[in-house]
Design a protein that fits this description.
alpha/beta; 10 helices; about 25% helix; TIM Barrel
């Protein structure tokens, strides 16, 4: 049976500015109406969601892969499979995110994401996020040092021209030679400029804001912090991200990269509107992993899975997470953030950051990207653009 009109009833609904017990009506892949009135006769399908929470589908703007697949592989099929792997955990829209790599591999990744975006009718591939290649080697983290470039010396036009309206975000280190000018260029092209893998001082980050940088990539990870030069304390990117109102911040709330106390600090400083929860998930996220297994990333960097997170083989740094966004939402709630605000950080905020206003909200006219969460905040039912991805409920149909 082809369902064209669906009502989800009985759930506590997380709306953009409130939460209430109401009903959500879906038709032709869109949210048609939010109403308290129920008449079973107009609907092709009724979803009984009593005792559950209905929230917008999560929007992950920083995720490298999932389900064993990654965007750096250069395969559209891999991008679709990584999107589906995360969709089963409530992420209905994402920006496949590249790791710094040689130019041919980056061009292949862009081509793959572009093809996947055109083909996909379930979870949405919103474009692509280029993390690098203009990153600071002093803060390289799990990025391949040999693939990092200096903006002034790099010809980035082939990347920009490969998908002119599809590159939604680029992470770069503005303190590098030509980094400020790169920010100006990103703004001109309509690309969100994020300060990433940066050793900038507070004052360099402040200057970067004047050149269009408006976001910080995974705050605290591969970010400079407070240092002391002779008798003087010099604040870094971490302090700039926390203090500057012009900057939003990406946060890996997987419970490993940042302890709950730091999540609480970030929330106190930035509030519910300027935090974007991300997974930074590698190709191994949203999948079953065996403790102690060594995995090789597409960029050649080897990582090991231990204690629920990926680490460099030296164990001196994390190498990306294996989280899903529902887990990040749960950790923010554990840190004391009210559920509606935690949900907003994983949906409406990241969607707004990249200009995708039709995503991340339970509102009439938005895409029907919806998730039902149980009392443990685990997804039990997921809809992407009106298409059911996961269904652990008993459906009541006419």
């Amino acid at each position: 049976m082809l369902h064209t009109k669906t009502v989800i009833r009985g759930a506590r609904v997380i709306l953009p500015d409130s939460e209430k017990d109401t009903q959500v009506i879906v038709e032709k892949g869109k949210i048609l109406e939010i109403t308290g009135h129920f008449d079973p006769s107009p609907y092709d399908r009724v979803i009984d969601a009593a005792g559950l929470v209905l929230c917008p589908g999560f929007v992950d703007i920083h995720v490298h892969g999932g389900g064993g697949y990654s965007v750096n592989s250069g395969s559209a099929e891999a991008v679709l499979r990584m999107a589906l792997a995360h969709a089963k955990f409530g992420t209905t829209s994402l920006l496949p995110t590249t790791l710094a790599a040689p130019m041919p591999q980056l061009l292949g990744a862009i081509a793959a994401a572009r093809e996947a975006s055109a083909r996909n009718d379930g979870p949405t591939v919103l474009g692509i996020h280029l993390e690098g290649p203009c990153l600071n080697p002093l803060q390289s983290g799990a990025q391949a040092p040999g693939s990092l470039l200096v903006p002034k010396e790099a010809d980035l036009d082939p990347l920009f021209e490969a998908w002119p309206d599809g590159i939604k975000m680029m992470g770069a280190a503005p303190e590098l030679d030509g980094g400020m000018e790169l920010g100006d260029e990103l703004v001109k092209r309509g690309i969100t400029a994020s300060i990433a893998h940066s050793n900038a001082t507070y004052y360099e980050a402040q200057e970067a804001v004047n050149h269009g940088y408006c976001d910080v990539t995974h705050l605290y990870s591969s970010c400079s912090g407070l240092i002391r030069v002779n008798s003087y304390r010099i604040p870094g990117l971490i302090e700039a991200g926390l203090n500057l109102d012009e900057l939003t911040v990406q946060v890996i709330a997987d419970g490993k990269h940042l302890p709950l106390e730091l999540l609480q600090l970030i929330y106190r400083c930035k509030g519910p509107e300027k935090i974007e929860l991300i997974t930074d998930g590698l190709q191994f996220s949203a999948s079953e992993l065996k403790e102690g297994t060594v995995y090789r990333q597409e960029n050649g960097v080897e990582t090991v899975y231990e204690d629920g997170v990926m680490k460099l083989l030296s164990r001196q740094a994390f190498a990306g997470s294996v989280a899903t966004l529902h887990r990040c939402v749960g950790n923010m709630v554990k840190a004391g953030v009210p559920l509606p605000q935690a949900v907003r950080m994983a949906s409406g905020n990241p969607a707004r950051r990249i200009g995708a206003s039709w995503k991340g909200r339970v509102a009439a006219g938005c895409d029907a990207d919806l998730v039902l969460l149980d009392k443990d905040l685990a997804p039990v039912w997921v809809m992407a653009r009106g298409k059911i991805i996961t269904d652990a409920l008993t459906e009541v149909s006419k």
